[in-house]
Design brief:
The chain has 517 residues and is α/β, with parallel strands linked by helices. The chain has 16 helices and 19 strands.
């Protein structure tokens, strides 16, 4: 039961009582699995272009991009602590004793720690780390020779040194160049200058951040913004936003009753990256590129990324222009059967919209209304890479509760892998989404879509967490590029794997793609 104090706390959080009751009901009922029809493949849901077509789309984007307000949107709020999981596990027991050294050298499960230490001079943060050690009279080479391995790791992770464990990925040194290193946020500024330039050379970049990191982000911008503007001949308009408290979700205990903290208050948790649809909805742009903070490369490999960003941007502009043309005709209502068939063919072939069987039995006026409703939606073009073992949502044809079939980016946690047929379909997926999207968020009259109207609220995630030693259930909103965009027009393009270079652990920065030479 919710008390009067609970009601007040909920109100102060910016959430309605009805929302909390719906959240609790979702815990009790759970979320249904998606109904996979088939995996999308090249030629069946995923466009694949030859070099001529790639060049055409790139030029179309370059010729028209300055007509639009372009924004590069980068989710960057999470702390980087998960990148260092294997190092934390090592610190839990390593004390420099002979027994500890022997265990380290014999136990293959610590190969990743050895790999990190062996290659420590190849990381972009190495100068900063050596400087931090030197201030306390310590030398890295000597520490390694003496097998005091825990010392440099502690200086990397904790506040006595660089404090990387508490920083967001955006503020970590990712890449080393001749004479300098560049943070992840800096790489995004450089990348944005290559493909997100608007009129008058303005580059709009928006980062979602956590409030505790705001000061450090501001310090970076104050110190480095003019340097980047001078180097790349642009003017940066950099914005920040935080996940809204109103998107938090109540936690429940294992009996699906509200989880209470030691002082009796309700416990709320962030709603996951699906909550960022609210941040996206607040942006006043025409075309919005979305890319994760850790999926970046040094300058020598930026050309493929730039090419395919311009390609998917060009395709979005081309499809949006044609869609707007048809929407104006449909709104006027002056379309005959031939024109309706032309529009339907375009929707099915180019926009990947599948029509129900009843569409062919509709009258002309019904078809006109139906096509208008299906075309007058936000649109996204998604870069999809071939599945080579990296994590990421797959692209599938999915049927919803209304028997409508559409393209959806689906996470494995949404699939009933206990169902042999569904599992087989999941295993047949050839591509996944590396969070490489470009979005059109205005309608044919120039009005901004209310993006929260296009969320599939029947999707979501429930997991077991702990708080103060007690288990609880946590719920996440539909993922930003999963259920939060479920009712968008979705178009997919085959892009090369070189455009996907995530950094999930610190050792990923030792991959060839993240090294300078």
């Amino acid at each position: 039961m919710l008390t009067e104090k609970d009601h007040q706390q909920i109100k102060e959080h910016g959430i309605s009582i009805e929302q909390v009751e719906q959240q609790i009901a979702a815990f009790k009922a759970g979320f249904p699995f998606v109904n996979l029809i088939s995996p999308a493949k090249r030629g069946d849901g995923i466009h694949a272009f030859d070099e001529k077509r790639l060049a055409e789309l790139r030029e179309l984007y370059k010729d028209n991009s300055e007509q639009f307000e372009i924004i590069k949107f980068v989710p960057a709020s999470g702390a980087a602590s998960r990148m260092f999981k294997h190092l934390f596990e090592f610190l839990d027991w390593y004390d420099g004793s002979n027994e500890a050294i022997e265990r380290l050298e014999k136990d293959k499960s610590f190969n990743s720690v050895f790999y990190f230490l062996k290659n420590i001079n190849r990381f972009a943060f190495i100068k900063d780390l050596k400087d931090a050690l030197s201030k306390d009279g310590l030398d890295l080479s000597t520490l390694l020779e003496e097998k005091r391995y825990d010392v440099p790791i502690r200086y990397l992770l904790f506040d006595k040194g660089l404090g990387y464990a508490e920083l967001p990925k955006a503020l970590l040194m990712f890449h080393q160049y001749d004479g300098f290193s560049r943070m992840a946020i800096g790489e995004h500024l450089v990348e944005g200058a290559h493909y997100a330039r608007c009129r008058d050379g303005v580059v709009n970049i928006h980062f979602t951040i956590s409030p505790e990191h705001k000061t450090k982000f501001d310090q970076f911008i104050e110190c480095r913004k003019k340097e980047y503007e001078s180097s790349y001949g642009v003017k940066y308009n950099i914005g920040f936003s935080e996940q809204k408290p109103s998107t938090d979700i109540i936690a429940v205990d294992m009996n699906n009753e509200p989880f209470r903290e030691d002082d009796g208050k309700l416990h709320f948790r962030p709603g996951g990256h699906g909550a960022l649809i609210e941040n996206l909805n607040d942006l006043k742009g025409d075309i919005i590129f979305i890319k994760n903070i850790d999926n970046i490369v040094p300058d020598r490999l930026k050309e493929p990324t730039t090419l395919y960003k311009q390609v998917i941007g060009g395709l979005l502009i081309e499809l949006q222009e044609k869609t707007f043309e048809y929407l104006r005709l449909l709104e006027d209502g002056k379309v005959d059967a031939d024109k309706l068939n032309e529009i339907a063919t375009f929707a099915e072939r180019d926009l990947m919209i599948q029509f129900p069987d009843r569409f062919n039995r509709m009258s002309l006026s019904q078809k006109t209304y139906y096509l208008f409703e299906r075309l007058n939606r936000p649109m996204r073009v998604c870069g999809m890479v071939k599945n080579e073992g990296e994590p990421g949502g797959g692209l599938f044809w999915v049927k919803n509760s209304k028997d409508e079939v559409s393209l959806q980016i689906v996470e494995f946690s949404q699939i009933n892998l206990q169902d042999a047929q569904q599992k087989q379909l999941a295993m047949e997926a050839t591509h996944f989404n590396p969070v490489d999207l470009v979005c059109a968020v205005r309608d044919f009259k120039g009005n901004q879509f209310e993006l929260t109207n296009y969320i599939d609220h029947t999707t979501g995630f429930i997991s077991v967490k702990s708080k103060d030693g007690r288990d609880l259930k946590a719920q996440e909103l539909p993922g930003l590029w999963n259920g939060a965009m479920a009712d968008w027009i979705t178009v997919a393009v085959d892009v090369p794997i070189i455009t996907f270079n995530p950094v999930k652990t610190i050792n990923d920065l030792l991959r060839e793609q993240h090294q300078y030479n």
